[in-house]
Predict the structure.
Amino acid sequence: MSDIDELIDKLAQDTAVVKPAPHPFALSAKWMLVAVAYIAISLMVAGVRHDLAIKLHEPWFAVEMLALFGIFFATSVSSALLSFPDIHQMRRAAFAPAISFALFVLAILLAWQADSPPAPLPIHSFECTSMILMLSLLPAVWTIIQMRKYASTHYQWAGSIALLFAFSVGAIWLRLNELNDSIVHVIEWHYLPMIVVGLLGMWLGKIVLKW
Amino acid sequence: MTDNTDNFAALMRRSLNGDKRAYAELLQETSRFLRPFLAKRLSFTNEVDDLLQEILLSIHKARHTYDGNRPYKPWVFAIAHFRLQDYLRAHYSDQLRQAIEITEVENNLPENVTETTLSYESISGEIQKLPEKQAMILQLMHQEGYTAKEVAEKMGMNESAVKVAAHRAYKILRETLER
């Protein structure tokens, strides 16, 4: 009996009933529900910006929020797909964040152009990035733990998208909480750090999602 | 069993329900179609066997990520490709680690590799016992007075390789003469 036959025999003897993983869309829906609940609870604790109702009627703020939710949705779906070795054979869907990020950048640039005369810059700066990072920490850990239950073969990509998903949770929360109208500040301290977070996720994915 | 996707999917569904025979059959068939895939990409049979075992273990570990409702082979090949990449990465980085770092060798070389305390003639008998290439290099450098660079040009090697070969030859000679 060859080593391979012996191994197969052993694995077959070891096998028992195994519950297949949920469909990635179901996984993604679950992750989004948990994230939305987390945002809602955090907003209940920290409070919603008092001008939210008015702001939502401003087209560029509404577009920005829609685009941000687009990232939240796309990164969640993509993270779930990337948790499977074969991306659940839906490779194109896994690229959804690329489209949502492109739309987001376009929305932000248009909002920036429309910001005339520019809204005054707030006195704070990096505090916003720190706040988003703090808020994103829990979703990031939770998402990574969830992803580790499966078997990603694209761990760097998966790590990056998972952290962007978590960061979008923090970014949505802050945009709904902070009383701030300066799009320049928002780009600089809310959204540009996403690039660093994406790169950090690639590094982290290599460490924590390898199996 | 025929090479039929539905059969693989059906076998996997039965395996997930705890059917040991179906699982053994599935893994046998899987190793059968993976072997040529690996053999094409690896040089030695033992490497193929080692990696195949690793892939089978990975399939076992990740079997809950396959539900039997999509083609089986792309799922298996995704895992096989992933493990192959891992193996090749580890293999090449290992080779690089074991390779002689030329700067390290150069640090150990005498200032001028053509200078030695012994004359070529006094140890020519020992030099002739060296491998042909090393003997030739020493002859050109010490008897005919060529520089390492000129020897490299003459022998169609690069200069560093000549220095490394000379260094190895000195080491052998030193050990022989010290005995």
